[in-house]
């Protein structure tokens, strides 16, 4: 006996069912936004998080909803060119129950004149602006964000207190100053302030990848790894219409000194109202703070991190090479150590890497060196830095050097020859962030490196030495377009270094240290 196909059965069901004729609807924004922890954005529009159901009220034009005889077809679309191929367009009908593993819809009210429709997005759906079409008549607009409260979302964080700090908190502390005297700087991230979410979505829409291929870019917005790397590039303006222009020399008359900013809101609004022209001016903590604001607004848990005695390695050999003359005076070098440098960490899984590298991922929006031809850096698992996994994506050698590089001082003699004077390991001290639920400083150096002198630290030092010899001998990782490599420059520019004032040289013999 020949049985009918499933497609035929579904088509017959639609044929005998009467499409629900929708007259009007209520998005129940106040309830849904509160349920999805987006009510601080306001309740005048629907803002929800992926992988979590939301409920809207539908009012049929005539008659009432009858299970089994009323049909409803839903189509969710995002981006200017939605397509099923790219996963930016998906159609689905009514189910008996909501399935949170993919797009689904179910009626959760008894038959009557009002239909309570529960809709759930896939936990890996692209974030952004959406249109939900109901039976080709009703068009509902909403914004979909990452959901760190959803276990199936790549940004899931299983700690309510941490979520309150790294997603919901609009105020925080950024540490500046020096290794010996860290200074806490209050900062207003303001991710829920009026219009800020719209500015954050505009940042995504202004990135070159979107301008070149909107469909592909919107599809990739399902991946927090991709989004955080885009933000790393877009918070600075070196390759694009990014948010901030950096400046590390005196003279801020045509803008605002980085020292004067107290929060991200004014910066983001200025960029938005000035036709996406870069805001003048930023330095490392400002770049990091703005990136943190945008990440939290989009639903990615994020925090600002400060690395004291932070190295800037330009050639990937994991060494900071300094030169002095025979009098001990410092000769201009391409590489430096700065009293501090700030970046951000974002919380997410890393299915593209081997297991156990989920969690905090470091990325740096300050434009220092190019990665894949663009001024961006990361994300790289913090654990990969600690374990010396220098081939992991993205930009592991550069970040590793910031916290682990050895400082080698060479004496340049009058005859032109050089000899190494001393090698020291002073880089990467008191790596700091704000403690959850407190304004106190939390030292997270242990997340980035093993204690100096420990057995595993000694083993890693040997591996790093082998890496350094490979770079010096064969040019490994000096150039390339692979996601794991960084294209370096052959010149030194003090305008791309942190912080505002370079460290003052220590007048000790032979210039063995910059620090007092």
UniProtKB/TrEMBL annotation:
<keyword id="KW-0106">Calcium</keyword>
<feature type="domain" description="Transglutaminase-like">
    <location>
        <begin position="276"/>
        <end position="367"/>
    </location>
</feature>
<dbReference type="GO" id="GO:0006508">
    <property type="term" value="P:proteolysis"/>
</dbReference>
<dbReference type="GO" id="GO:0050568">
    <property type="term" value="F:protein-glutamine glutaminase activity"/>
</dbReference>
<dbReference type="GO" id="GO:0005739">
    <property type="term" value="C:mitochondrion"/>
</dbReference>
<keyword id="KW-0378">Hydrolase</keyword>
<dbReference type="InterPro" id="IPR036985">
    <property type="entry name" value="Transglutaminase-like_sf"/>
</dbReference>
<dbReference type="Pfam" id="PF01841">
    <property type="entry name" value="Transglut_core"/>
</dbReference>
<keyword id="KW-0342">GTP-binding</keyword>
<keyword id="KW-1003">Cell membrane</keyword>
<dbReference type="GO" id="GO:0005525">
    <property type="term" value="F:GTP binding"/>
</dbReference>
<keyword id="KW-0158">Chromosome</keyword>
<dbReference type="Pfam" id="PF00868">
    <property type="entry name" value="Transglut_N"/>
</dbReference>
<dbReference type="InterPro" id="IPR038765">
    <property type="entry name" value="Papain-like_cys_pep_sf"/>
</dbReference>
<dbReference type="GO" id="GO:0003810">
    <property type="term" value="F:protein-glutamine gamma-glutamyltransferase activity"/>
</dbReference>
<dbReference type="GO" id="GO:0046872">
    <property type="term" value="F:metal ion binding"/>
</dbReference>
<keyword id="KW-0964">Secreted</keyword>
<dbReference type="GO" id="GO:0005634">
    <property type="term" value="C:nucleus"/>
</dbReference>
<dbReference type="InterPro" id="IPR014756">
    <property type="entry name" value="Ig_E-set"/>
</dbReference>
<keyword id="KW-0645">Protease</keyword>
<dbReference type="InterPro" id="IPR050779">
    <property type="entry name" value="Transglutaminase"/>
</dbReference>
<keyword id="KW-0808">Transferase</keyword>
<dbReference type="GO" id="GO:0008233">
    <property type="term" value="F:peptidase activity"/>
</dbReference>
<protein>
    <recommendedName>
        <fullName>Protein-glutamine gamma-glutamyltransferase 2</fullName>
        <ecNumber>2.3.2.13</ecNumber>
        <ecNumber>3.5.1.44</ecNumber>
    </recommendedName>
</protein>
<keyword id="KW-0539">Nucleus</keyword>
<dbReference type="GO" id="GO:0005829">
    <property type="term" value="C:cytosol"/>
</dbReference>
<dbReference type="InterPro" id="IPR013783">
    <property type="entry name" value="Ig-like_fold"/>
</dbReference>
<keyword id="KW-0272">Extracellular matrix</keyword>
<dbReference type="GO" id="GO:0005694">
    <property type="term" value="C:chromosome"/>
</dbReference>
<keyword id="KW-0479">Metal-binding</keyword>
<feature type="compositionally biased region" description="Polar residues">
    <location>
        <begin position="63"/>
        <end position="85"/>
    </location>
</feature>
<comment type="similarity">
    <text>Belongs to the transglutaminase superfamily. Transglutaminase family.</text>
</comment>
<dbReference type="GO" id="GO:0007399">
    <property type="term" value="P:nervous system development"/>
</dbReference>
<dbReference type="GO" id="GO:0005886">
    <property type="term" value="C:plasma membrane"/>
</dbReference>
<keyword id="KW-0496">Mitochondrion</keyword>
<feature type="region of interest" description="Disordered">
    <location>
        <begin position="61"/>
        <end position="88"/>
    </location>
</feature>
<dbReference type="InterPro" id="IPR001102">
    <property type="entry name" value="Transglutaminase_N"/>
</dbReference>
<dbReference type="InterPro" id="IPR002931">
    <property type="entry name" value="Transglutaminase-like"/>
</dbReference>
<keyword id="KW-0012">Acyltransferase</keyword>
<keyword id="KW-0547">Nucleotide-binding</keyword>
<keyword id="KW-0472">Membrane</keyword>
């Amino acid at each position: 006996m020949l049985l009918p196909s499933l497609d035929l059965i579904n088509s017959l069901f639609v044929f005998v069912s009467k499409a629900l004729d929708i007259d009007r609807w209520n998005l129940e924004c106040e309830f849904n936004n509160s349920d999805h922890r987006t009510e601080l954005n306001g309740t005048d529009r629907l803002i929800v998080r992926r992988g979590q159901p939301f409920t809207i009220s539908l009012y049929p034009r005539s008659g009432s909803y009858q299970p089994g005889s009323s049909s409803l077809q839903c189509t969710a679309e995002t981006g200017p060119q939605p397509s099923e191929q790219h996963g930016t367009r998906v159609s689905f009908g009514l189910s008996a129950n909501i399935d949170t593993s993919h797009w689904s819809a179910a009626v959760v009210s008894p038959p009557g004149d009002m239909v309570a429709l529960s809709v759930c997005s896939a936990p890996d759906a692209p974030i952004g602006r959406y249109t939900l079409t109901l039976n080709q008549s009703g068009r509902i607009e909403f914004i979909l964000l990452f959901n760190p409260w959803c276990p199936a979302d790549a940004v899931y964080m299983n700690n309510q207190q941490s979520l309150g700090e790294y997603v919901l908190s609009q105020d925080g502390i950024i540490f500046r100053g020096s290794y010996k005297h860290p200074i806490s700087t209050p900062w207003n991230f303001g991710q829920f302030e009026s219009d800020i979410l719209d500015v954050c979505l505009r940042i995504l829409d202004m990135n070159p990848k979107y301008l070149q291929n909107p469909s592909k870019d919107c599809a990739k917005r399902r991946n927090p790894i991709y989004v955080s790397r885009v933000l790393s590039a877009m918070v600075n303006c070196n390759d694009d219409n990014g948010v901030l222009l950096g400046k590390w020399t005196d003279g801020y008359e045509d803008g605002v000194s980085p020292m004067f900013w107290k929060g991200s809101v004014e910066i983001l609004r200025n960029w938005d109202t000035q036709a996406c022209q870069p805001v003048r001016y930023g330095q490392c903590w400002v770049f990091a703070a703005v990136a943190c604001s945008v990440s939290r607004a989009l639903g990615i848990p994020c925090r600002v991190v400060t690395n004291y005695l932070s190295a800037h390695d330009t050639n990937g050999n994991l060494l900071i090479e300094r030169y002095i003359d025979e009098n001990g005076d410092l000769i201009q070098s391409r590489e430096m150590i700065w009293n501090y440098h700030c970046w951000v960490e974002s919380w997410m899984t890393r299915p593209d890497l081997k297991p156990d590298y989920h969690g905090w991922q470091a990325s740096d929006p300050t434009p220092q060196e190019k990665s894949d031809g663009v001024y961006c850096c990361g994300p790289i698992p913090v654990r990969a830095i600690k374990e010396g996994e220098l081939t992991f994506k993205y930009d592991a050698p550069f970040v590793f050097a910031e916290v682990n590089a050895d400082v080698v001082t060479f004496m340049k003699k009058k005859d032109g020859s050089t000899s190494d004077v001393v090698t020291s390991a002073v880089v990467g001290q008191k790596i700091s962030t704000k403690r959850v639920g407190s304004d106190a400083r939390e030292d997270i150096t242990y997340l980035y490196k093993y204690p100096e002198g420990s057995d595993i630290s000694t083993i890693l030092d040997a591996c790093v030495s082998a890496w350094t010899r490979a770079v010096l001998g064969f040019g490994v990782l000096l150039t390339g377009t692979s996601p794991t490599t960084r294209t370096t420059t052959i010149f030194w520019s003090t305008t791309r270094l942190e912080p505002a004032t370079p460290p003052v040289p220590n007048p000790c013999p032979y210039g063995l240290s910059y620090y007092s």
